[in-house]
Amino acid sequence: xxxxxxxxxxxxxxxxxxxxxxxxxxxxxxxxxxxxxxxxxxxxxxxxxxxxxxxxxxxxxxxxxxxxxxxxxxxxxxxxxxxxxxxxxxxxxxxxxxxxxxxxxxxxxxxxxxxxxxxxxxxxxxxxxxxxxx
Length: 134
Hints:
The chain is of the alpha+beta class. It has helices spanning 7-18, 30-42, 55-65, 68-73, and strands at residues 78-79, 89-96, 99-107, 111-116, 119-124, 128-132. The protein has one domain (7-132). It is built from 4 helices and 6 strands. Strands 1-6-2-3-4-5 form a 6-stranded antiparallel beta sheet.
């Protein structure tokens, strides 16, 4: 996948607009956030058909895909987490009211950005469980 020549600026602008967006299944959840970042950097959506608008819809869609990890791995090449660079997609394990779940994130360097309840959540890179090259 080819990134735009100015992808760092595009990614920064995308992160800035997503920073305060509250979590919402479909428009701003972990999958749509990661997909939006990839689209900002490359001009291409990697998950155009993975659409839903409710928690149940997300559960069903991701179950059909085999989970968040498999959904991303079907679209982007998996790489060792230690080699992930700024702008790559990753997965982390996060605690939710329903228990731990896998969430998509974007590698920003030493931090990871993921969609959270009150906007973006920034996590330590040490939490990265899997990574995918953009």
